[in-house]
Each structure stands twice: as structure tokens, then as C-alpha cells.
Amino acid sequence: MASPFRADHVGSLLRPPEMLEARRAYNAKQISWEQLKEAADKAALKAIDAQKQAGIGIYTDGEYRRAIWSGALRDSLEGLVPDPDPPPPSPLTPAPNRWQGEFGEIANETLREVSPNALMVNQRLRLTHMMTGDEAAFLKQHAPGPWKVTLAAVSRTATWFKPGVTDKFYKSPEELQDELLGFRKQELKNLIDMGCSYIQLDSLRYTSWMNPVRRQPMVDAGLDLDKELDEQIAWDNASIEGARGTPGVTVGHHICRGNNRSAWSGQGGYEPVAEKLFRQMNVDRFLLEYDTERAGGFEPLRFVPRDKMVVLGIVSSKLAAPEDKDMLKRRVEEASKYVALDRLAISPQCGFASTMPGNMLSWDEQQRKLELVVEVARDVWG
């Protein structure tokens, strides 16, 4: 049976200065991968201690081995190279300078630094190692309780098929996608075999249907939005096939509007996707962003089936100031009009460092946010 984990968090944590310096040295080819891994191990012990001190009941390594939240798959593959002639942005592919808010330009520059190139497949793909093997092995040894591993949803690979190049090795984007789904299924099996308690998918893709600014161009381009949504849900379900229902394992899906240097890239409520997504996605819990008015109201939660939980992301990982605890409890009460209280939990709306430099708050301010999540959870659920 999946655990309720009333106080949750999305996964990434701010990197200590020594971890940031180690990553910079690695990028400059001044240290080896093994030296970077050693630095990540030391920093992750600090992250585990922070989670323990806050009272969070599920542990991650802070995603310190990644330069960006989606990097685990990319870093484990042989056969991916920079695309010298990337396609222009389309209704399905947002423009690179898409980050919004006070720190939007900093976020745009950060993304260019940590993920500078569009990628394409130029040979038959080969996994060189387990995507999250180092994370899982470390957490298995050091986490003082249940531990979580996060994986980017399969939609992150949608642009890797390059006509005239990739089709020499894969007949179609669908064949490439099937290969990647196979890699993902094996990864989940390996994680479960290693004792992973909680597997979480992270996806930006559903924002395309939720965001009115992006939804209309999709309609204008003649896309069948219902069909596109059905296919995306089917891909995500296929990637986690067999994981749900495994004793002692929780399967979650975080629906993200973008998180980079306290900037954001998407907006819009869940209503356009809610009925299909909540009813068809085969997970134990949805981690949903509800930190600002850009997320809309709780009404779409009426579609969540009784065998699934909702983690309310009502604490901001973007803003330094702590939320009022009574306000947070009122928001939980409001959400309980649509999902029973015993099927709710709370968390920050996203990670604290989806990209290496992290959001615009301090380590102590991050700690206070984690503590606040735990305090509210204890007040509400005991």
C-alpha cells in the first residue's frame, strides 16, 4: 500500500557552495566525474540531515548529481549529440527565452548555461549506466527513512528525433519513443529492486494544455488537443507500467509550470486536463502546484478518483518569505471540499533547485519552508 507521506517535497534542494564549485570545476574539466560524485555525496549528507531536522518523512539526495532536473536520462545515454540546426519553436515546443517574473532574464541565462544545446539522436541509443543508480545506491545506504527518486517524464524526449539523421536508426519518432520507454521501465524495475520507496515523474508537458497563451497556438496549428493529451497520458502510463501496486512503493507525478531561479514559464488552471489526467494517470498521488493565482482554483480536483491522493503545493519554493501557517491550513480545508482530507498532503509547489544555481532564497529560508510543511501537516493530520 502506498504511504500517505503527509509532508512531502518535490525533490531538488539548494546546493551548498562547495557543490556549486565542484560542478563548475567539472564543467571546466578541472576535476573528474568521480571527484564530482564524491563532492555530491558529501553535500547530499548535508541535505539528508536538513530533511531529517525538518521532520520530512521522505528523503532525496537533493538531485545534486544533476545540473538540471531532467538531466539523469540525458547523462546516461550514448547516442545523443547537439543538434546543429534545431527546429524553430512550435506550439508543442516553447521558445527558449520563456521564463517570466522578476528573475526571468536570469533564468533564461541559467538555462542556456546548464542546458545549452538542443539534442538529437545520431545513432542507436545505448544506456551507459543506470540513470539514477548513484542516487539510489547513496540513499539506500544513508537515508534514515523511506527515500524518493525523481525522473523526468517521457515528454522531455519529444524533440530528439531528427529527420534525415535519426531515421537511419529509428524508423519513426514512435520507435524511438518505444526504445526510451523500455529504458524507463527497466530503470523503475531496478529502483524497486534496490528498495526505492517512492518514484516520482516530473512533467512540464501538461502546461501546454493548461496555459491559454500556448493552448490557442496549438488549436491554430490544427492539433487535435484531445488526441495529443491522450497520447501523453498513455506514454507516461507506459513508462511506469507495473510500478503502482508494488508493496511499499509510492508512485507520484508532479505537474510543473516551470521552476528556474525563482522564475516561471507556465500558467493556467488544471481544468483543461483534469478529467482525463486525474482519472487515467496510473499513479498513487499527484503533486500539484497551487502556490499562486496562476494555478486557478481547487475545483478541478473533483475529478481525482478515490484511490489517488493529491499533494497540495501551497508553500512556495520560489519566494523566501514563509507563508502564514493559518492561511495554509485554510487552503487545505478549502481543497478538502473536492478531495477528502484523508487523501490530501502538502508540499512546496516545486523543487528548490530545478537548475543547479537554485531559487532565490537561502539555505536557512529553505529549511524554514520544509519545517513549515511539516508543522502544517502535523496540525492537520496529527
Topology:
Blueprint: H1 17-27, H2 33-54, H3 71-75, E1 77-82, H4 104-114, E2 119-127, H5 133-142, E3 148-152, H6 173-193, E4 198-203, H7 207-210, H8 212-220, H9 225-239, E5 250-255, H10 271-280, E6 285-289, E7 309-315, H11 325-335, E8 344-348, H12 363-381
Helix pairs in contact: 1-2, 2-12, 9-10, 11-12
The chain-level mean pLDDT equals: 94
* The top level CATH class name: Alpha Beta
Q: Give me the strand/helix succession.
A: HHHEHEHEHEHHHEHEEHEH
Number of discrete helical segments: 12
A few lines on this structure:
The chain is 39% helix and 13% strand. The chain is an alpha/beta fold.
Description of the molecule:
The protein is an alpha/beta fold and 382 residues long. It has a single domain (17-381), classed as TIM Barrel (Alpha-Beta Barrel), CATH 3.20.20.210. 39% of the residues lie in helices and 13% in strands. The chain has twelve helices and eight strands. The protein has helices at residues 17-27, 33-54, 71-75, 104-114, 133-142, 173-193, 207-210, 212-220, 225-239, 271-280, 325-335, 363-381; strands spanning 77-82, 119-127, 148-152, 198-203, 250-255, 285-289, 309-315, 344-348. β7 (309-315), α11 (325-335) and β8 form a beta-alpha-beta unit. The longest helix is centred in the N-terminal third of the chain and has 22 residues, at 33-54. It is globular, with a radius of gyration of 20 Å.
